[in-house]
Design brief:
Strand order of the largest sheet: 1-2
Order of helices and strands: HEEEEH
Structural class: alpha+beta
Largest sheet: 2 strands, antiparallel
Number of domains: 1
CATH topology: Helix Hairpins
CATH class: Mainly Alpha
């Protein structure tokens, strides 16, 4: 193989490495965004659980402000009855809801939170693998660049 053919082969390899590095960078961004979104969902579940637990400590007729949208744009005043713990409506997944007592609602939320934690852990492991491969490719590309510069600076 001539020097020109070897050089051409290396360019193809470098291009393939650059393409893979770009692909990995995009995948890393997607997985990182998924982890962030899942973590926010987990936070919301834990907040719901905490709220249900705290409300049980309040007396009958507790006044509250209830948000009427998901962004907290507007609130309305509400009075929470003493028997509220028997009529909690809880999301059981895929936008299906069930009426349950407070204890069952907390158990459902805990189960959903555990499932979400498992998914987050899997995605974090995937993210770590992608980052490791990306860092390895970056180091490899830097070494190739240093070698190419060294070869270019040598007289022919």
């Amino acid at each position: 193989m001539s020097k020109e053919e070897a050089s051409k082969e290396r360019v193809i390899d470098v291009r393939a490495l650059l393409a893979r590095a770009t692909e990995l960078r995009e995948l890393i961004n997607v997985v990182q965004q998924q982890v962030n979104e899942l973590s926010m969902q987990l936070s919301e579940l834990l907040l719901s659980r905490s709220t249900l637990q705290e409300l049980s400590k309040r007396s009958e007729g507790t006044q509250a402000l209830v948000t009427i949208d998901r962004l907290g744009t507007a609130f309305i005043p509400a009075t929470i009855p003493g028997n509220w713990g028997r009529e909690v409506v809880v999301n059981i997944g895929r936008n299906y809801y069930v009426k349950a007592d407070r204890e069952l609602a907390i158990k459902i939320i805990d189960e959903r939170a555990r499932g979400l934690e498992n998914v987050i852990n899997v995605r974090r492991r995937e993210l770590l693998q992608l980052l490791n491969e990306y860092n390895y490719l970056q180091q490899l590309l830097q070494a190739i660049l240093r070698q190419a510069r060294a070869e270019a600076s040598q007289p022919t």
